Amino acid sequence: MINNDRALSHLLDLLAVEGPSGQEAKVVEAISKKLVSAGCKKAWIKTDDAHKRLGAGYGIGNLIVKMPGTIKAPRIMFSAHMDTVPLCKGAVPVVKGNRIVAKGNTGLGGDDRSGCAAIVSMAETILKNKIPHPPMTLLFPIAEENGLHGSRMVRFKDLGNPAMGFNLDGQEPNEIVIGAMSAVRWKAEIKGISTHAGLEPHKGISAGLIGSKAMAAIAEQGYFGKIVKGNRKGTSNLGSVSGGEASNQVMDQCIMTGECRSHSQAFLEQIVKVHRASFERAAKSVTNDKGKCGKVKFSTISDYRAFRLRKSEACVKIASKAVETVDLKPNPLIMDAGLDANNFNQKGLPTVTLGSGSHKFHQLEEYVDIKEYLTACEVLLDIARLAS
Ligand SMILES: [Zn+2]
């Protein structure tokens, strides 16, 4: 059903549009124009205010297209992020054999314009051929690459409260991401007391010593780097250390930052708990001659939460069936990184992530496999049919 020439030209057009994170206005314009000429009413298309809530550095909101259904069924959502990594600035896409590559010394941006173009091609095919379909929301989030910000800011009521989601942001068209891990960033702000290191070191409290003791304690308990406790697994890292002013001055300030990850939310909380307790104990253990001890403020930011979709979940069943319809074997995956779908699942919208033929993300060697991309377009069309 997909018109391959049109699907390919949508992809080439969208790959040529520049749109780093926070500057997606031209992508919004290009996708909207294509959808209007495909038969979308202008009233169905809008952008939300995600950029205003994110603040400086964000020029436009998430692009949301709400298509009414021609049959009564729960609303489904298709999504693909609009932004590309800085490496893709100035990309000129060219066809080389069965691949699309960047002509010059840039990334291509198939991550995730191949997903955007596949959704546009699917919607065009449905509208032009008057294929019966459920109510559908097409969501094109901003700012995925710099921290899943657009999807985090999305309000489900703006999307028409879809019942399930199909996110496009991957490689082979048979891959179905059904789970991902949790990640937390932590920061320890340690306060000591500064004195002359030669004359009165005993009156000072070294923030550096507190940080060192805390990290040593974390490692001794087996919670540094690769963490394995029975069948529970995770990782932790110390990413940066800054503090102190001079070698003859007791260090009164030290800031340490790091991260922890696990596929289990409960175990991640345990890893964080060990970090927090180790810093607090270390702060109490370093005292000066008056018996005063150091202080630490330990804070965390949740990057994304782990999720695991059941095989019986409607979006998993429909995506698997659609992949089988194009004669491929579904490949369910658990990701070690974050996707927009993490935010949707976290907020209660069951969402799988599928591939659209893009490979070697964030590299100069990035390419889109044309056959895989066209297969992904067919898979999307089958999803819309199967959800009816
Ligand atoms: Zn991506």
TrEMBL record:
Residues annotated as binding Zn(2+): H81
GO MF terms, alphabetically ordered: aminopeptidase activity; metal ion binding; metallopeptidase activity
Gene3D superfamilies the record matches: 3.30.70.360, Zn peptidases (3.40.630.10)
Alphabetical keyword list: Hydrolase, Metal-binding, Metalloprotease, Protease, Zinc
Start and end residues of each Peptidase M20 dimerisation domain: 181-283
Cofactor: Zn(2+); a divalent metal cation
Record family assignment: Belongs to the peptidase M42 family.
Protein name: Peptidase T
The organism of origin for this protein: Pontiella desulfatans
